[in-house]
Amino acid sequence: MTDRSPLVRAAREGIGSLPLYSAESAVCAIDLSDNTNLWGPPPAALRALSQAGAPSLARYPSLYSEPLRDLLLEYTGLAGGDFDTITGCGSDDVLDSAMRAFSRAGASIAFSSPTFTMIPVLARLNDLKPVSVPFADDFDIDAEQLVDAAADITYLCSPNNPTATAASRPAVEYVVRNATGIVILDEAYAEFAPETFEQLVRESDRLLVARTFSKAFGLAGLRVGFGVGAQALTRLVARARGPYKVNAMAELAVRAALEPGASGRDWVAARARTVIEHRARLAAALVARGLNPLSSAANFLFVPTPDAVNIARELVARGILVRVVSGIPDSPSVLAGARGTALRIGVGPWDMMEALLTALDEIRS
Ligand code: PMP
Questions:
Q1: Among the atoms of ligand 1, which is closest to the Cα of residue 34?
Q2: Disulfide-capable partner of 213 in 1, 112, 224, 337 (CB 3.0 to 4.6 Å)?
Q3: In angstroms, rounded to a whole number, what is the distance separating the alpha carbons of residues 323 and 30?
Q4: For residues 297 and 194, is the Cβ–Cβ distance under 8 A?
């Protein structure tokens, strides 16, 4: 379809040139490419799904996931205040809806770069001018530059995808306190981070914290994300989102996964603890092989290397899929030698990590 075709001309301006999301598609026995839970879903969620009866399918789900609200507020430590939640078909949907709610003529969104690839796409889709700000040298967010951008929306991602790095508390607080517009803080990888920032919604009714069930909770296939913030804010986002975005089966599984107990929430927390242990072991093993991941606060490692494309191709030949990240900038300085490419490698059960290390040894010998 060329840009001059009548169909493209009839469409909304710019939509024909928006990229479709693309992800690695090779079918590999070991898939470390998408930062999901490599142990799978929590047993309580599987049980809830297998026991679901016909009414769960024949009737509409709740409008705005009302049955999840109290559980989500309790999970994030925000029960009992003027806070509310907004769910969505993945946290993508929450981010998209939040942008739509706050997009006005000429509005802009500022974010540190590189970050989650959907952000510039969702920005364009919502007529927001993207303003990208480089990371500081230590891979903290550059809080002053983000605030100085005076954007209508400031997007922070901590831990950040793809770099796995975490923002510091002073920098996040500076942005939350001084940003002119609203702040969206994406904590998709919160469960793996040494600290999280959702309590800052107590200080600012302009902060929306986004979380997901796709990563630590092992439910990516069900597509559930949520945002938490002041009720006045989540209600605006709900209007932009629309009803019935989380389906009935997903709602059942999420309720079960959040239940305290060894097959629900505690199962998730235990797997997250194991990820944190394996992350350190894998990072050390990579360093011993001349690959230098950035310090990770997430369930993946980001390894800047000019050999990323070759290494990934050789790994696929051995049944292992990792993500190649290209187009990364050459600053901060640690990225300078990577010639714009990096590997993003998911952390999971040690037998998978061992298979990866064995394959790397074969490739490099
Ligand atoms: N935010 C970040 C930082 C992500 O990495 C992802 C998934 N890759 C998402 C949001 C979206 O996740 P989901 O829509 O599955 O909740």
A1: 8
A2: 224
A3: 12
A4: yes
pTM to 2 decimals? Answer: 0.96
For ligand 1, atom 14, the nearest C-alpha belongs to 90
Exposed e or buried b per residue across 83-116, where buried means at least 16 C-beta atoms within 10 angstroms of its C-beta: bbbbbbbbbbbbbbbbbbbbbeeebbbbbbbbbb
User: What does the DSSP assignment read for 341-354?
Assistant: EEEEEE---HHHHH
Is it the case that residue 54 has pLDDT exceeding 90?
Answer: no
Closest Cα to residue 205, out of 238, 177, 186?
A: 177
Give me 286's structure tokens.
């990579």
User: Phi-psi region for residue 340, left (φ > 0), alpha (ψ -120 to 50) or beta?
Assistant: left
Q: Which helix (H) or strand (E) is 136 found in, with range?
A: none
Q: Report yes or no: 108 and 146 within 8 Å, Cβ to Cβ.
A: no
> Tell me: the pLDDT tens digits for 264-316?
999 999 999 999 999 999 999 999 999 999 999 999 999 999 999 999 999 99
> What's the gap in Å between 226 CA and the centre of ligand 1?
11
Q: Are 179 and 147 in contact (CB under 8 A)?
A: yes
Tell me how far the alpha carbon of residue 173 is from its chain's centroid. Answer: 20
User: DSSP label at 229?
Assistant: E
Q: How many helices (H) and strands (E) does the chain have?
A: 13, 12
Q: How remote is the CA of residue 59 from the centroid of ligand 1, in Å?
A: 28
